[in-house]
Design a protein that fits this description.
Blueprint: E1 7-15, E2 18-27, E3 32-37, H1 46-54, E4 60-70, E5 79-80, H2 82-98, H3 107-112, E6 117-118, H4 124-169, H5 171-175, H6 178-192, H7 199-213, H8 216-232, H9 240-260, H10 264-284
Parallel strand pairs: 3-4
Antiparallel strand pairs: 1-2, 2-4, 5-6
Length: 288
Protein backbone atom coordinates (compact mmCIF):
# COMPACT_ATOMS: atom_id res chain seq x y z
CA UNK A 1 0.00 0.00 0.00
CA UNK A 2 1.47 3.41 -0.94
CA UNK A 3 2.26 5.81 1.88
CA UNK A 4 2.81 9.53 1.78
CA UNK A 5 5.83 10.88 3.68
CA UNK A 6 3.89 13.79 5.19
CA UNK A 7 1.61 13.44 8.16
CA UNK A 8 0.91 14.10 11.82
CA UNK A 9 -0.29 11.85 14.61
CA UNK A 10 -0.49 11.82 18.39
CA UNK A 11 -1.41 9.41 21.15
CA UNK A 12 -1.87 9.68 24.93
CA UNK A 13 -1.70 7.23 27.82
CA UNK A 14 -2.02 7.38 31.61
CA UNK A 15 0.34 5.85 34.12
CA UNK A 16 -0.87 6.52 37.63
CA UNK A 17 -0.87 10.27 38.12
CA UNK A 18 1.16 10.84 34.93
CA UNK A 19 -0.06 11.62 31.44
CA UNK A 20 2.15 10.42 28.57
CA UNK A 21 1.79 12.14 25.22
CA UNK A 22 3.58 11.43 21.91
CA UNK A 23 3.39 13.71 18.87
CA UNK A 24 4.95 12.74 15.53
CA UNK A 25 5.34 15.07 12.57
CA UNK A 26 6.56 13.68 9.25
CA UNK A 27 7.79 15.47 6.13
CA UNK A 28 9.56 14.44 2.92
CA UNK A 29 13.12 13.14 3.03
CA UNK A 30 15.23 10.91 0.79
CA UNK A 31 15.94 8.54 3.68
CA UNK A 32 14.66 7.90 7.20
CA UNK A 33 15.70 10.73 9.54
CA UNK A 34 14.45 10.44 13.14
CA UNK A 35 14.62 13.20 15.73
CA UNK A 36 13.46 12.65 19.33
CA UNK A 37 12.57 15.21 21.99
CA UNK A 38 11.97 13.69 25.41
CA UNK A 39 12.70 14.41 29.10
CA UNK A 40 16.39 13.96 29.92
CA UNK A 41 15.71 11.39 32.64
CA UNK A 42 13.94 9.24 30.01
CA UNK A 43 16.56 9.69 27.28
CA UNK A 44 17.89 6.14 27.87
CA UNK A 45 14.74 4.88 26.12
CA UNK A 46 15.57 6.67 22.85
CA UNK A 47 17.41 3.75 21.14
CA UNK A 48 14.44 1.41 21.72
CA UNK A 49 12.05 4.10 20.51
CA UNK A 50 14.13 4.60 17.36
CA UNK A 51 14.01 0.90 16.61
CA UNK A 52 10.27 0.82 17.17
CA UNK A 53 9.65 3.63 14.66
CA UNK A 54 12.25 2.35 12.18
CA UNK A 55 10.61 -1.07 12.03
CA UNK A 56 7.46 0.56 10.63
CA UNK A 57 8.49 3.73 8.78
CA UNK A 58 11.06 3.49 5.96
CA UNK A 59 11.38 7.06 4.61
CA UNK A 60 10.73 10.59 5.80
CA UNK A 61 11.99 13.11 8.33
CA UNK A 62 10.15 12.47 11.60
CA UNK A 63 10.10 14.70 14.67
CA UNK A 64 8.93 12.64 17.67
CA UNK A 65 8.11 14.52 20.87
CA UNK A 66 7.31 12.92 24.24
CA UNK A 67 5.67 14.97 26.97
CA UNK A 68 5.19 13.67 30.51
CA UNK A 69 2.90 15.71 32.74
CA UNK A 70 1.01 15.13 35.96
CA UNK A 71 -2.64 14.42 35.38
CA UNK A 72 -3.41 15.72 38.86
CA UNK A 73 -1.37 18.78 39.75
CA UNK A 74 -1.84 18.09 43.44
CA UNK A 75 0.21 14.91 43.03
CA UNK A 76 4.00 15.01 42.96
CA UNK A 77 4.28 18.79 42.53
CA UNK A 78 7.47 20.33 41.24
CA UNK A 79 9.84 21.58 43.97
CA UNK A 80 11.35 25.05 44.24
CA UNK A 81 15.13 25.16 44.06
CA UNK A 82 16.37 27.46 46.83
CA UNK A 83 19.75 28.19 45.22
CA UNK A 84 18.07 29.17 41.96
CA UNK A 85 15.64 31.44 43.83
CA UNK A 86 18.47 33.12 45.70
CA UNK A 87 20.44 33.62 42.49
CA UNK A 88 17.39 35.15 40.80
CA UNK A 89 16.87 37.48 43.78
CA UNK A 90 20.47 38.65 43.49
CA UNK A 91 20.08 39.27 39.78
CA UNK A 92 16.89 41.26 40.36
CA UNK A 93 18.61 43.40 42.97
CA UNK A 94 21.45 44.20 40.58
CA UNK A 95 18.99 45.12 37.84
CA UNK A 96 17.04 47.38 40.23
CA UNK A 97 20.27 49.10 41.23
CA UNK A 98 21.02 49.87 37.58
CA UNK A 99 17.40 50.58 36.62
CA UNK A 100 15.48 51.85 39.69
CA UNK A 101 12.21 52.13 37.78
CA UNK A 102 12.24 48.56 36.43
CA UNK A 103 9.09 46.57 37.30
CA UNK A 104 9.56 43.88 39.96
CA UNK A 105 9.40 40.21 39.04
CA UNK A 106 5.95 38.61 39.30
CA UNK A 107 5.33 35.12 40.66
CA UNK A 108 4.79 33.91 37.09
CA UNK A 109 8.12 35.44 36.04
CA UNK A 110 9.90 33.63 38.87
CA UNK A 111 8.32 30.26 38.07
CA UNK A 112 9.25 30.57 34.40
CA UNK A 113 12.90 31.22 35.20
CA UNK A 114 15.11 28.27 34.15
CA UNK A 115 16.14 26.08 37.08
CA UNK A 116 13.71 27.50 39.62
CA UNK A 117 11.39 24.49 39.41
CA UNK A 118 12.69 20.98 39.85
CA UNK A 119 10.39 18.50 38.16
CA UNK A 120 9.94 15.11 39.83
CA UNK A 121 12.38 12.53 38.49
CA UNK A 122 10.58 9.95 36.34
CA UNK A 123 10.99 6.28 37.17
CA UNK A 124 12.41 4.74 33.99
CA UNK A 125 11.52 1.15 34.90
CA UNK A 126 7.86 2.00 35.52
CA UNK A 127 7.43 4.20 32.45
CA UNK A 128 9.39 2.25 29.80
CA UNK A 129 6.55 -0.07 28.75
CA UNK A 130 3.71 2.50 28.64
CA UNK A 131 5.96 4.99 26.81
CA UNK A 132 6.76 2.45 24.08
CA UNK A 133 3.13 1.30 23.86
CA UNK A 134 2.00 4.92 23.49
CA UNK A 135 4.66 5.52 20.83
CA UNK A 136 3.52 2.41 18.97
CA UNK A 137 -0.05 3.70 18.96
CA UNK A 138 1.15 7.06 17.65
CA UNK A 139 3.18 5.40 14.87
CA UNK A 140 0.17 3.30 13.87
CA UNK A 141 -1.98 6.45 13.68
CA UNK A 142 0.73 8.17 11.62
CA UNK A 143 0.91 5.28 9.16
CA UNK A 144 -2.87 5.27 8.83
CA UNK A 145 -2.80 8.98 7.97
CA UNK A 146 0.15 8.54 5.60
CA UNK A 147 -1.61 5.58 4.00
CA UNK A 148 -4.76 7.60 3.27
CA UNK A 149 -2.72 10.38 1.68
CA UNK A 150 -0.58 7.82 -0.16
CA UNK A 151 -3.64 6.20 -1.72
CA UNK A 152 -4.87 9.60 -2.87
CA UNK A 153 -1.50 10.35 -4.48
CA UNK A 154 -1.40 6.90 -6.10
CA UNK A 155 -4.82 7.53 -7.67
CA UNK A 156 -3.57 10.82 -9.14
CA UNK A 157 -0.43 9.11 -10.44
CA UNK A 158 -2.46 6.33 -12.01
CA UNK A 159 -4.77 8.87 -13.70
CA UNK A 160 -1.82 10.74 -15.21
CA UNK A 161 -0.12 7.48 -16.16
CA UNK A 162 -3.24 6.48 -18.08
CA UNK A 163 -3.15 9.93 -19.70
CA UNK A 164 0.37 9.22 -20.95
CA UNK A 165 -0.81 5.84 -22.28
CA UNK A 166 -3.60 7.56 -24.21
CA UNK A 167 -1.10 10.02 -25.72
CA UNK A 168 1.20 7.18 -26.76
CA UNK A 169 -1.69 5.31 -28.36
CA UNK A 170 -2.53 8.43 -30.37
CA UNK A 171 0.99 8.95 -31.69
CA UNK A 172 1.05 6.20 -34.34
CA UNK A 173 -1.72 7.66 -36.52
CA UNK A 174 0.17 10.97 -36.49
CA UNK A 175 3.34 9.19 -37.62
CA UNK A 176 1.71 7.57 -40.66
CA UNK A 177 3.33 9.10 -43.72
CA UNK A 178 5.51 11.49 -41.70
CA UNK A 179 8.78 10.31 -43.25
CA UNK A 180 7.33 10.65 -46.74
CA UNK A 181 6.31 14.20 -45.89
CA UNK A 182 9.82 14.94 -44.60
CA UNK A 183 11.30 13.69 -47.86
CA UNK A 184 8.88 15.76 -49.94
CA UNK A 185 9.70 18.92 -47.98
CA UNK A 186 13.43 18.36 -48.42
CA UNK A 187 13.05 17.89 -52.18
CA UNK A 188 10.95 21.07 -52.37
CA UNK A 189 13.68 23.03 -50.58
CA UNK A 190 16.33 21.73 -52.97
CA UNK A 191 14.16 22.72 -55.93
CA UNK A 192 13.52 26.21 -54.52
CA UNK A 193 17.25 26.73 -54.10
CA UNK A 194 17.68 25.67 -57.73
CA UNK A 195 20.58 23.44 -56.74
CA UNK A 196 21.68 20.45 -58.75
CA UNK A 197 21.79 17.71 -56.11
CA UNK A 198 23.46 14.39 -56.66
CA UNK A 199 20.52 11.92 -56.59
CA UNK A 200 22.55 9.35 -54.66
CA UNK A 201 23.73 11.93 -52.12
CA UNK A 202 20.19 13.23 -51.80
CA UNK A 203 18.90 9.75 -51.04
CA UNK A 204 21.61 9.33 -48.39
CA UNK A 205 20.59 12.61 -46.75
CA UNK A 206 16.94 11.60 -46.88
CA UNK A 207 17.74 8.25 -45.27
CA UNK A 208 19.77 9.98 -42.54
CA UNK A 209 16.95 12.44 -41.92
CA UNK A 210 14.46 9.61 -41.66
CA UNK A 211 16.69 7.81 -39.18
CA UNK A 212 17.04 10.91 -36.99
CA UNK A 213 13.29 11.49 -37.07
CA UNK A 214 12.46 7.89 -36.17
CA UNK A 215 10.79 7.86 -32.71
CA UNK A 216 9.80 4.19 -32.60
CA UNK A 217 12.30 3.35 -29.86
CA UNK A 218 11.21 6.30 -27.71
CA UNK A 219 7.56 5.29 -28.04
CA UNK A 220 8.37 1.68 -27.11
CA UNK A 221 10.35 2.76 -24.04
CA UNK A 222 7.64 5.19 -22.96
CA UNK A 223 5.10 2.38 -23.19
CA UNK A 224 7.34 0.04 -21.19
CA UNK A 225 7.85 2.64 -18.46
CA UNK A 226 4.16 3.47 -18.03
CA UNK A 227 3.38 -0.24 -17.77
CA UNK A 228 5.97 -0.61 -15.01
CA UNK A 229 4.61 2.46 -13.21
CA UNK A 230 1.15 0.89 -13.28
CA UNK A 231 2.53 -2.37 -11.86
CA UNK A 232 4.46 -0.63 -9.06
CA UNK A 233 1.42 1.38 -7.98
CA UNK A 234 -0.31 -1.90 -7.19
CA UNK A 235 2.47 -3.36 -5.05
CA UNK A 236 2.28 -3.33 -1.23
CA UNK A 237 5.88 -2.25 -0.50
CA UNK A 238 7.40 1.29 -0.43
CA UNK A 239 7.58 2.58 -3.99
CA UNK A 240 8.81 6.18 -3.90
CA UNK A 241 12.43 5.58 -4.97
CA UNK A 242 11.55 3.21 -7.79
CA UNK A 243 8.87 5.54 -9.12
CA UNK A 244 11.25 8.48 -8.91
CA UNK A 245 13.71 6.60 -11.13
CA UNK A 246 10.98 5.69 -13.65
CA UNK A 247 9.75 9.29 -13.82
CA UNK A 248 13.29 10.37 -14.71
CA UNK A 249 13.34 7.76 -17.49
CA UNK A 250 9.94 8.88 -18.75
CA UNK A 251 11.15 12.46 -18.83
CA UNK A 252 14.29 11.50 -20.74
CA UNK A 253 12.31 9.65 -23.43
CA UNK A 254 9.75 12.45 -23.71
CA UNK A 255 12.51 15.03 -24.21
CA UNK A 256 14.14 12.91 -26.91
CA UNK A 257 10.78 12.41 -28.62
CA UNK A 258 10.07 16.15 -28.55
CA UNK A 259 13.50 16.96 -30.00
CA UNK A 260 13.01 14.61 -32.97
CA UNK A 261 9.49 15.43 -34.12
CA UNK A 262 8.91 18.46 -36.33
CA UNK A 263 5.23 18.49 -37.21
CA UNK A 264 2.94 20.56 -35.00
CA UNK A 265 0.55 17.76 -33.90
CA UNK A 266 3.50 15.65 -32.74
CA UNK A 267 5.12 18.65 -31.07
CA UNK A 268 1.92 19.22 -29.09
CA UNK A 269 1.99 15.59 -27.97
CA UNK A 270 5.56 16.07 -26.76
CA UNK A 271 4.53 19.10 -24.69
CA UNK A 272 1.53 17.27 -23.19
CA UNK A 273 3.75 14.30 -22.31
CA UNK A 274 6.19 16.54 -20.46
CA UNK A 275 3.40 18.31 -18.57
CA UNK A 276 1.94 15.02 -17.30
CA UNK A 277 5.38 13.64 -16.40
CA UNK A 278 6.26 16.80 -14.45
CA UNK A 279 3.00 16.55 -12.51
CA UNK A 280 3.84 12.94 -11.68
CA UNK A 281 7.37 13.89 -10.61
CA UNK A 282 6.03 16.40 -8.09
CA UNK A 283 3.58 13.85 -6.66
CA UNK A 284 6.16 11.05 -6.42
CA UNK A 285 8.32 13.24 -4.15
CA UNK A 286 5.67 12.73 -1.45
CA UNK A 287 5.63 8.93 -1.55
CA UNK A 288 7.55 6.67 0.85
Amino acid sequence: MPHSMTGFASAEARRGALRLSWEIRSVNHRFLDLSFRMPEDLRALEPECRDLVGDVVKRGKLDCTLKVTTADRAVAPAALVDDALQGLRTLEARVKAAFPHAAPLSTADVLRWPGVLEEPVQNLDELATPIKECLSASVTALQDARGREGRRIAELLDKRNRGITALIDGIQPLLDGVQARYRDRLRERVQRLDVQADPERLEQELALLAQRADVAEEIDRLGSHVTEVSDILRRPEPMGRRLDFLIQELNREANTFASKVQEEPLTRVGVELKVLIEQMREQVQNLE
